[in-house]
User: Which sequence fits this backbone?
């Protein structure tokens, strides 16, 4: 499989882009260190250079601030680089949570079938009856209304709209594996339901699910960025690409004069999602024999 | 099973889904405490003393058991009572309906372009597989799925609206907008459909129609770019699959011309999977509208909901969510029926 991926220039480009993003995320403290001397409680809250003050007008890129500054002199280089780390952290949190819920519910639905299956599947139907981002907007608005931290509400909402997809996928895989001889053999030898599910069904059905989930990284980060862009995500001055673009919107109203406020964060998002989409395309081609290149 | 029974069965299946949608929204609303929920029914909650609010809570039954509340809420909605928006200071349902035409206008202009463009590009790029046309189309479709609509929209609006000043945001140039609203108030402007491009022609103002068209161009372009990219991908892979089938070889062996083989035999079969994903496209469209309308300050329902969400105006957001899920479910129903019509095997399942 790997040699096939490495043969395709587009997927190699995808791998290169993803490695570049991983590099930025891992070495963010060294690439964009906090040089202001101000103690941060949260590394994602962009430190402001005291020399620049708190003016609303963005400053153009200088050697000290490579990408310039945005609203309230927030440093964009710091924001974009740490935004990569934030994207990975958010994506990981969401994937671990949605996969966890999906695994438990999908296993239960697929293994037991009947009433449990019916209840779980109808519930996924209801969630999937909404366009994802719009349901997330409802959750954020309600949680925000009762005083939740908006960023936490956004992450929670993305998890709530994400689990039904995995639940269905895992259920399908479980149904495929359930009838296999080794599961029957385990049952005949007196293994408990839990043991059959965890030791026999799970290892044989998780492979595709993990691939699909890892490819969802791009779309999860894009959803989070879209929520942030709508003002339903991180607070002002946070190292989150969607939020940085949201902060750049007022400056886009003056044309391209303050171009750096929205162009740099945008480029970082595109390079991130492009990487995942290129790799995802290649993987789909490799995994799907019908469109496989001859 | 005939097509008619299939349609009836699918229609009946929608009822539990829509009931579930309403139930989910209701369950989510239970997180908001009664004092805040009562404001959904009051025109101006600030002017009421706490004991008055408490009385309203009991009048509207917000202190009663959950199932009683659900019954009241549901029957209220069936009578068209969807609450009051404290942010827009208007009833939610009329507010939604007043903004539907603007959104409909974007949808009406972009959908045919998306479908025709997406299918044409997908088919042609599959026919010319691995040649430069195909490579360009693939790059376009990968860019279309990677470029976030809000970033693309902001770039376009910075360039064409703020920098070059070719158009303004919103539906019309501000001076014409004022004119229309003044004419409306003096009944010199008849609102027939709410669609600016159509109404202006019916009122004998082609200049306003032209202006409205120009203002639609950017939102339609953003929506198109993202949605077409998805459609191109699906059409291309389905067409490639179809071109590899044995009946294509048979058709070629029969001596049919290349265009007959491609457009009559291969394309017709390749479009079946395309029909099935068009339901998903409607979902993507609803999401895309929220972003696109917000970027271009286009006064449709998407922008209406997004702005309300920022100030946690729950009553607007839930009505918008229920509306879009109804559209989404209905679109999927239509797609399923179409699919059953095209492919009779489905009706048996």
Assistant:
């Amino acid at each position: 499989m790997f040699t096939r991926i490495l043969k395709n220039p587009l997927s190699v480009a995808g791998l290169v882009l993803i490695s570049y993003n991983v590099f930025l995320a891992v070495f963010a403290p060294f690439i964009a260190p906090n040089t202001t001397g101000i103690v941060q409680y949260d590394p994602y809250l962009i430190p402001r250079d005291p020399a620049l003050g708190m003016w609303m007008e963005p400053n153009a890129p200088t050697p000290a601030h490579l990408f310039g500054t945005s609203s309230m002199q927030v440093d964009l280089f710091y924001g974009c680089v740490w935004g990569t780390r934030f994207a990975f952290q958010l994506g990981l949190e969401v994937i671990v949570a949605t996969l966890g819920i999906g695994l438990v519910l999908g296993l239960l639905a697929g293994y037991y079938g009947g009433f449990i299956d019916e209840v779980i599947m109808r519930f996924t139907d209801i969630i999937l009856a909404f366009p994802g981002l719009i349901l997330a907007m409802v959750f954020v608005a309600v949680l925000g209304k009762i005083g939740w931290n908006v960023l936490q509400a956004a992450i929670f909402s993305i998890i709530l709209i994400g689990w039904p997809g995995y639940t269905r996928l895992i259920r399908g895989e479980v149904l495929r594996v359930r009838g296999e001889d080794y599961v029957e053999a385990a049952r005949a030898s007196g293994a408990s339901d839990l043991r059959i599910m965890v030791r026999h069904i799970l290892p044989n059905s998780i492979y595709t699910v993990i691939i699909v989930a890892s490819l969802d990284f791009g779309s999860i980060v894009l959803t989070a960025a879209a929520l942030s862009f709508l003002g339903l995500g991180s607070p002002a001055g946070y190292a989150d690409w969607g939020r940085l673009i949201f902060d750049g919107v007022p400056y886009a109203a003056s044309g391209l004069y303050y171009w750096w406020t929205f162009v740099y964060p945008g480029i970082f998002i595109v390079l991130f999602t492009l990487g995942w989409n290129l790799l995802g395309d290649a993987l789909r081609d490799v995994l799907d024999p019908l469109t496989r290149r001859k | 099973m005939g097509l008619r029974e299939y349609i009836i069965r699918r229609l009946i299946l929608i009822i539990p889904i829509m009931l579930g949608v309403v139930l989910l929204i209701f369950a989510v609303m239970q997180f908001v405490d009664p004092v805040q929920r009562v404001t959904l029914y009051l025109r101006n909650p600030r002017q009421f003393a706490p004991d008055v609010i408490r009385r309203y809570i009991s009048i509207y039954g917000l202190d009663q058991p959950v199932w009683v509340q659900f019954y009241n809420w549901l029957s209220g909605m069936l009578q068209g009572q969807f609450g009051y928006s404290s942010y827009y200071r208007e009833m939610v349902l009329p507010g939604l309906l007043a903004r539907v035409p603007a959104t409909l206008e974007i949808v009406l202009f972009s959908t045919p372009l998306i479908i025709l463009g997406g299918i044409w590009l997908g088919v042609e790029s599959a026919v010319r597989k691995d040649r430069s046309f195909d490579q360009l189309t693939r790059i376009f479709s990968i860019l279309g799925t990677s470029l976030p609509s809000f970033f693309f929209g902001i770039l376009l609006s910075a360039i064409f609206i703020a920098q070059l000043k070719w158009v303004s945001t919103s539906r019309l140039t501000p001076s014409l907008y004022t004119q229309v609203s003044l004419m409306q108030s003096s009944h010199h402007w008849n609102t027939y459909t709410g669609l600016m491009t159509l109404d202006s022609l019916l009122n004998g103002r082609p200049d306003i129609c032209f202006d409205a068209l120009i203002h639609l161009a950017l939102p339609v372009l953003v929506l198109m770019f993202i949605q077409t990219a998805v459609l191109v991908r699906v059409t291309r892979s389905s067409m490639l699959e179809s071109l590899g089938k044995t009946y294509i070889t048979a058709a070629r062996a029969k001596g049919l011309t290349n265009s007959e083989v491609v457009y009559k035999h291969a394309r017709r079969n390749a479009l079946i999977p395309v029909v099935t994903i068009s339901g998903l496209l409607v979902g993507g469209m609803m999401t895309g509208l929220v972003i696109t309308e917000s970027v271009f300050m286009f006064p449709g329902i998407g922008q209406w909901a997004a702005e309300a969400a920022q100030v946690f105006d729950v009553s607007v957001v839930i009505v918008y969510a229920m509306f879009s899920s109804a559209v989404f479910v209905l679109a999927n129903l239509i797609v399923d029926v179409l699919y059953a019509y095209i492919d009779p095997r489905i009706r048996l399942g």
